[in-house]
Amino acid sequence: MDREIRAERPYASANGYLMFLVGVVLLVLGAGSLLRGMVALGVPMLLIGALVVAGLYMLQPNTAAILMLFGEYRGTDRAEGLRWANPLLVKRKLSLRARNLNMPAQKVNDRRGNPVEIAAAVVWRVKDTAQAVFEVDNYEVFVTVQAEAALRHVASQYAYDHGEEQDEREITLRGSIDEVGGALREELQARFADAGVEVLDAKLTHLAYAPEIAQVMLRRQQAEAIISARRKIVEGAVSMVEAALNGLSEREIVRLDDERKAAMVSNLLVVLCSDKDTQPILNAGTLYN
Known about the structure:
The protein contains 7 helices and 10 strands. The chain is an alpha+beta fold. It folds into 3 domains: about 15-95, no CATH class; about 100-215, Tetrahydropterin Synthase, Chain A (2-Layer Sandwich), CATH 3.30.479.30; about 220-289. A hairpin with a 2-residue loop joins strand 3 (about 65-70) and strand 4. Helix 4 (about 140-155) packs across helix 5 (about 175-190) and helix 6 (about 210-250) runs antiparallel to helix 7 (about 260-275). The radius of gyration is 38 Å and the shape is rod-shaped. The N and C termini lie far apart (about 95 Å). About 20% of the residues are buried.
C-alpha cells in the first residue's frame, strides 16, 4: 500500500505593517491605562499588544516559512516582506534559492569494469517545502547522499571510451558529455522527487581513469591514435598513386608494363607513407636500367 505524501499548501498571512501598527497602539494604550490606574483595562491591552507583536515575522525574496500549530502542518507562506500570523504558530524558514552541490571525485567502475574517477556539480532548489521538511529527516543530507548514489549508478551504465570493436555512435562518459549529463539529471530528479527537490542542472566536472590504470590506458589511446593516423595516411597515399597512374595513362606520357607499375607504386607508397624524409636517387640511365 502506497503511503500518502504530504504536499505543500499555501497559508494566507496578514499584512505585517498593519498588525505592527495595531500592536504598537495596543501597547501604548495599555501603558497609558496603567499609568491612570486602570489595571483591569491596561493589563489585557498590554498582553494582546505583546501577542500581536510576537506574531510578526519577515520573509525575504525566494524564502518560505512553514507554519505549524502544536505539531500540525497549517501551510506554507511564500509572501515577501513583513508578515503576521498567529503567534502560537511555529514558523520554520526555508530558502527557495538555487544551490550548488559540488560532489568530490569518487572512484567507480564503468560499464566494462574499468575503475574511473568521476565528479559532478548539481544545481538544485526546494520546490515543495512540505515534502522537504516532513518526508525526509534532513533534505540537505538527503540530497548529498542521493546525488552520490545517482552518479555511481549512471557512471556504471556507460563505458569510459569507445573500444576497438564498438560502435562510434555508442554513448560514452568521455565522448557524450551532454547525453550523460541528461541521464544524470533524470536519475537525480527521480531520487529527489519524494523530498520535494527540483534539479535545475547537472554536469560532469571531472572524469579520468583511476591512477592504477591511467598510464596503461594512456598508452592504449596513443597507440589507437597512431593506428588511426597511419590508416588515413595509407588511404590518402593509395588515392594519390591511383590518380598518378591514371594521369600518366590518360595523357600517354609514358607507357609502363605491370612490373614497372608495381615498382612505381612501391616507390610512391614509400615516399608518401614514410614518417622520415626520403633520399632521392638520380637515375642517369633509362627507366629499365
